[in-house]
Design goal:
Length: 84
């Protein structure tokens, strides 16, 4: 059995993952699972992947008064983010 990570180690893994230029939805799934397991908030990293298909988020960006919407190139899902 694999020894469990500490929360810091898990956070480190997540930071390294999002530092990559490219990732696949499969890798994203694993990372999200890791984050949930260790109750780590993805915070601003959530802007890096599509909520629906978990692929790397890139596409048309629309800025509204309170939100920013990024339409996923892969599945056309509108990812809404609060403007901060
Ligand atoms: Zn998508």
């Amino acid at each position: 059995m694999k020894s469990p990570l500490t929360k810091n180690e898990a956070q480190e893994k997540i930071n390294l993952f999002f530092a990559k230029q490219k990732f696949t939805p499969e890798e994203m799934k694993k990372t999200r699972r890791l984050a949930m397991k260790y109750k780590i908030k993805l915070g601003h990293y959530r802007k890096k992947f599509c909520k629906k298909c978990l692929s790397q988020l890139k596409g048309k960006t629309r800025i509204l008064k309170t939100h920013k919407t990024i339409i996923c190139e892969n599945c056309n899902f509108k990812n809404k983010f609060k403007l901060s």
